[in-house]
Design goal:
about 750 residues, Immunoglobulin-like
Amino acid sequence: MWPPRELRKSHIYLIHQSATEGLPVEFYLSAFYADGRPAECNISLYKLDEQIKDKKENNEIINLLKNPLLTTKTNQYGVAKVVDKNLLKYLQEDNEICFVAQDEFGKVGFRKNYFYISSSEVGLHTFTNKTIYKAGEAVELEIVANKAEMLLVVDVVKDLKVIHSQTLELNQGKANLTLPYNQMFTGVITLAIYSIKENVGNGYSSPVSIKTIIYPDNKNLELSLKLDKESYRPAEEVKATLEVKTQDKQVLESALGITIFDKAVEERAQEDKNYRPNSFYQTYLHASNNYENISGITLDNLKTLDMSKPISQDLDLVAEILLAHTNIYFPVITETNRFSASYSRLFASVIEKDLKEIKETLESQYAKNSLYPTNEPTLFVLLGYFGDYFYQLKDPWGTNYKVKFFVKAEMDVMEIVTAGADKIFDTTDDFIALNMGWPYFKPYGEVLNQVVSSYPTKTGDCICDSAILKREILKRGINLDTLLDPWGNLYKVDFEIHKTNYLVKIISGGKSTKEEILVWQAKANYFAYFQGVIQKALDNNLEKTGNFPRTIDELQSILKNVQVDLSKIKDPWGNNYQVDFQVENQILSFPYIVTYLEEGERKTKTDTKVKIGSKLKIYINSIGKDALAKTIDDFQVTHFSYLLNTNDLMESPIPIGTNYKPIFSDLELKGLLKGLVTDETGAVIPGASIKATNFLTSLVYQTTTNEIGEYLLIGLPAGIYTVEAFAAGFLDISNQNVIIKETFITALGSCSK
């Protein structure tokens, strides 16, 4: 009797498809009714042309389909396998196809699908003579490839462990292999066929073919279920008898878990798997404890098959599909032409993970409390909760780590050492698992920093001799005459001048007392006092008069009010400071807040206005130790600046948000080029083409002159450029070695053509 009308529509699924250039296209199909029963039906595959693709109704599409690419038939379990050599050429033209299923009652099912075509240049397919094997049966393999000759490796895997491995050579793209029966061939067996010579793609992947078979080995308990009748009405009570036996038919007391599902619910679950894979289907799978099934047949059913009975081809195909979906093994192929015998490199990731908490705990203790270990008792205390963990921790070879503490130069060092593979310390394979160091002078050095940096503010001078330094730091509780280094020796103090800073150096003689170990360095800006006084005087004058000095006389006049005479102030080498006044053009950005209405709501955003600004700068320079101007040791001591005026360049609104990149966000880090193009008489040339080419990168930046012959190129990276001008009816002109500086405007002046 045929199924009720509403149950007769079939559903089609495309399973585990594979398509590689030069190999047969291989895939499985399944068809089921809405109540979950398998559908034995004819399934035809069609190519969708553009006219059909535009149709939305399935019935309309079905009526337009003609000339199927192939037709197959599902078996009693609702599944079919297709291996076709000619299908790939149609898929390469358009990988969208459709399937139409029709059962003996004339009911139709329809599904569209996209085929994934592998981009791999080299591919493998593996076929076995069957999927379900009896104990004692050998496995027959046929391997085909789209390359004529190749050296393959065949791994036989059980429970993710390789139990047999051998090589095999392809001849004219084919190879056959018989794997004799092995007593370890029980349960699910994975066959991994791959090449370690034919790297493809990025050079790190190899062609791989996986095939999974099964030797049923029924060691499970037998569970029987008897119902008091075959069908029930809604809300009707069900009476069932359950019995559990061993394989030798002994009855057992057992704990049972029971889940009841409507078959229509199972079909709904399959629909969810295809369209919403993370929704109801996952719940169904876990509740049914059945991660894949076809027509109610699960992997557990396959494992417990009675092999004394014949296995039909239909059931073997079900097993092939189920096992293809349940495989979790994949070979990891690593190739190198170098062998590393370095244990530290090979086991670095393992050791780093084991010692991560130790390292982070010690770093935290030092950051928060300036505490670090100098021996094992202090290490144990500082590790706190992780102390016991560390002393029970084993290296990759099962040996406890050893901890070493020592002084190296300016650092207290802790090393955690492993004995290596020989498990014996102080041999050649020992290596350092973790190295940490801390500057032992830091507690005194931070006080020294404060003393040296604050002294000029109080006195207008820097500490530049030992007597003053010892006196000032003694006020903070540190006596340099009694402070000893880790080897029990007094420290030496040295003074040095480096550009704008006086340097105070603390030196240790080391273990031999003859070394020169710099354990700490403090610095003070010798011009800092005068810089503060001058800046304040300039600010006060600007507030009162609105003027900024442009000459040395104007500057000296302002500084008289604060008793500063630049002509009498000397640099550390006794030279007068050089004062220079310059006007510089720069690109400036000014953020401002914009208030606006959006859908009646008052909102604000930050905008940026980009301008060209002119700055007046006062540079105070030193001629250095050689007392000669314009030599290599000259340097800038400080500078003071004042923004004279700005002209609008452009406005670039910058909405608030993390994904927006302002068009001119990097303008301040780049330069501008401006110029004028004229003819021989001095008449301007509008519309002339300007091209600036970066000498180093060969990048080209272009613009045209405006109606008065001027041009402006914005956002040029710093560098050397060739600037060319072109205009119809005029000779081309080229300017070589034009230097563009960041944040500066480079002006070429007029260019005659």
